[in-house]
Amino acid sequence: MTEYTPKERLSRALTGQPVDRMPAVSVTQTGTVEQMEACGSFWPEANNDAEKMATLAEAGHTVVGFEAVRVPFDITAEAEFFGCEIKAGTKEQQPSVVGHVVKTVEDIEKLKGYDLSEGRVGVVCDAIKILADKYGNELPIMGSMIGPFSLAQHINGDEWFMAIFTDEAFSLALMEFTTGFCAAYAEKMVESGADTMVIIDPTASYQLIGAEFYEKFVVPFHRKIADAMHKLNVPVVLHICGDTTQGLALMESSGVDGISVDQNVDAAVAVGKVEKSVIIGNLDPVNMLWNKTPEEIKAQSQKVIDAGIGLLAPGCGIVSKTPTVNLQAMIEMAKSHKY
């Protein structure tokens, strides 16, 4: 079989084409303290400066060995872009959203007319361009963003979960707005050089809102983003936290190419729940990748591979204190697997 470049290999794997072996990637955040120390680019500065962001993303490849580069490292840039209050991150912790800006449809209107070259979303696009200029011919350049449902929750606050049950008009208006932004932002990332798109939508959970509301407030909006990316020949991966087992068929119905599942999902069951989407995951980032030995990680990796997983990867964002050798154990197992 032909030996592919990492860029070709991931694209083919995500779109159901034959490949020589499993790609070794992480579709969730890749930054760790050991990488920061090796490359000299640290959080929180690497979240706000394009050069430093690109340098740390590059370390995922040059220091750890991932066959892709990916930005950003957190999911707060989009909410910050719209004026939400952010609790600053540290060298070891990511920033978080602590203040919200939308209560009414009128508030949504005030957020329109934005410029995607501004704020941290502009920084992310600049970092992608730096990475694409250096690695775009060989490595996958992954762009990532928070999904529209979780962005709506960031913008509206915890009232969001009540709103989807009690105020359909407002909730659909906010979803239309966040989805329009997400699609435009994704297109901007592709224009900057991204060739793979990852949607991280942690609170868009079948477990949390049930099938009826997932079908109404999530599926059609994810589909709009997937359709926009597919028009540009860019594969799309969707990650939702928690036990997504019962929602996998609905997740797939949005047209995404890959579905990243976390450690609460049985990998073999997940594979059986979808028809075409590639199941990605699902090594526990805390109890396995951070806290176990390379030998234990290899053993668990083999179990996940044997379960039929499409791409071996962390089940959620990599913990910043994760040892490089542990990530390399997972990478070794991925690269050794022939489909």
Give an overview of the whole structure.
By secondary structure, this protein is α/β, with parallel strands linked by helices. The chain has one domain: TIM Barrel, CATH 3.20.20.210. It is 50% helix and 10% strand. The chain contains 16 helices and nine strands. It has helices at residues 6-14, 33-39, 50-64, 77-81, 105-110, 119-135, 148-156, 160-166, 168-192, 206-217, 219-230, 248-252, 267-273, 285-290, 294-306, 324-336; strands spanning 69-71, 86-87, 96-97, 141-146, 196-200, 236-239, 258-260, 278-283, 311-314. Helix 13 (267-273) links the parallel strand 7 (258-260) and strand 8 (278-283).
How many individual β-strands? Answer: 9
Q: Report the radius of gyration as a whole number of Å.
A: 19 Å
Q: Indicate how many domains the architecture comprises.
A: 1
Percent of residues in β-strands? 5-15%
Q: What's the helix and strand layout?
A:
Blueprint: H1 6-14, H2 33-39, H3 50-64, E1 69-71, H4 77-81, E2 86-87, E3 96-97, H5 105-110, H6 119-135, E4 141-146, H7 148-156, H8 160-166, H9 168-192, E5 196-200, H10 206-217, H11 219-230, E6 236-239, H12 248-252, E7 258-260, H13 267-273, E8 278-283, H14 285-290, H15 294-306, E9 311-314, H16 324-336
Parallel strand pairs: 1-4, 4-5, 5-6, 6-7, 7-8, 8-9
Antiparallel strand pairs: 2-3
Provide a brief overview of the structure:
It is built from 16 helices and 9 strands. The chain is an alpha/beta fold.
